[in-house]
Write the C-alpha cells for this entry.
Amino acid sequence: MAKRAAVILAAGVSSRMNTMLPKVLHEVCGRPMLSYVLDACRAVDVEKIYVVVGYGADQVKERYGGHDDIVWVTQAEQKGTAHAVMCCKDELAGFDGDTLVLCGDGPLIRKETLKTLVDKHDSEQSATTLATAVLDDPSGYGRICRDSYGNIQGIVEDSDCDEKQLAIQEVNPSYYLFKNKILLEALEKVEPNNVKNEYYITDVLAIVLAAGHKVVAITAVRPEEAIGVNSRRQLSEVGRIMQDRVQDELMDGGVTIVDPDNTWIDARAQIGQDTVIEPFTYIHGIANIGKSCRIGPFAYLRNDTVIEDDVVLGVFTEVKDSVLGAGVRARHLNYIGDSEIGKNVNIGAGTITANFDGENINKTKIGDDSYVGSGVVIVAPVELAKGSKIESGTVVSKNSLIKPLKG
C-alpha cells in the first residue's frame, strides 16, 4: 500500500466572514469545518497530516491538541496556495510517497470521493491526479481544460477565461494528489506571475504537465462537495447540506425523524433503532440515545447526554450532561441537568433539577423505580434511593426526608 501524507491549507483570513475566529474552526452541525477534512484524510490511510496555519494558529492548535497524526506548519505571511504547501517542504523532504493537498474550509468533503481519487492515482500511476466537479454554474471556479482525447491540458482561473472557456462546466474544487518528489520539484519552479503576486497551486500542475509527467483528472466530486466556505451565507448553506446528510444516515439506520426540516441534530449524536424524533427537537453535542425512544416535540438535548432504551422525553424537556436509564418518562416542561436517573423513573410535569448554586455545579441521583411528582424542585446535590416517592410541589434538598413508594 502506498504511503500517503496530506497538506491541509488552513491559514487564510476570511474577511468576508467578518470574524475573529479562525475560519476552519467555525462549526458545521456541531463540529469545526477542519474536523471533516481531517476525518476524510484518515479514512484513506493518511499517515501524517500537515496542517498549515496562520491567522489564529494558537486557537486551531489548542482545539486539536493531542492528535498525534497532525504536524503544525506555520505560514506567517499568506502568499497563496502554493506558498502554503512550500511551507511544508522541510517536513515533506525525503518522504517517498503521495501527498494530498486539500483546503481546510471544505467540510462537505467525503471519504468516498478521496478513495476514488486515491484509487485512480494508484491505478494510473500518475504523477498528479485531480478530482474535479461538474457544476451547473461554474462561476468563480478554475476551469478544467482538456484536449479532444479527454486529457487534461491545464486549469484556467475564472478571471482569465475567454468566452469559450467560461462555458466549461468542469471545475477545479482543489482536490489534489501528487507524487511527493514531483510536487517538491515543481514547487521550486513556481513564480508569482499574477496581479496578487501570489504563488498558486494551479501553477504547480502546469509545471508538472510541462515536464512531461502524467496528469489525470477524474470527475468524482459531487457539486455540493465543491463548496468552500468564504462567507456566513456559505456557512449556512453548507450546514443545511450537512444536516441532510446527518439525518439521512440516521434514518437509514432505523431512526424516524418526523419533520426533518424542523429538526436539528449534531453530527456527533448517536441514535438507536426505532427511536422517534418529533418536530422542533434540537440535539446539540455528543449525545447517545438508545433504541425505541420518543424525543420531543420541542425537546432540547445538550452535550454529554446519555439516554438508554425506551425513554420518553416530551414537550419542552431539556437534558444536559445526564444519564437517563431505560424506561424513564419525562413528558412535559422538565429540566434535567447533571443527573443520573435510574430505570423506570417517572418525572412529573414542571420538575427541575437545580444543579447550580451560584458557585458549583452539583449532581442529582435518583434511584430505579422512583416517582417524582409535578412541579418538584430538586436542589442538588441530592441522592434519592431506589423506589423513592416525591410528592407534587415538593422542594427536595439533601436534608429532605423521602418516603419510599408503597409496595
Remarks:
- The chain has a mean pLDDT of 95.
- Residues 253-404 form a domain with the UDP N-Acetylglucosamine Acyltransferase; domain 1 fold (CATH 2.160.10.10).
- The chain has two domains: 4-226, 253-404.
- The chain has nine helices and 36 strands.
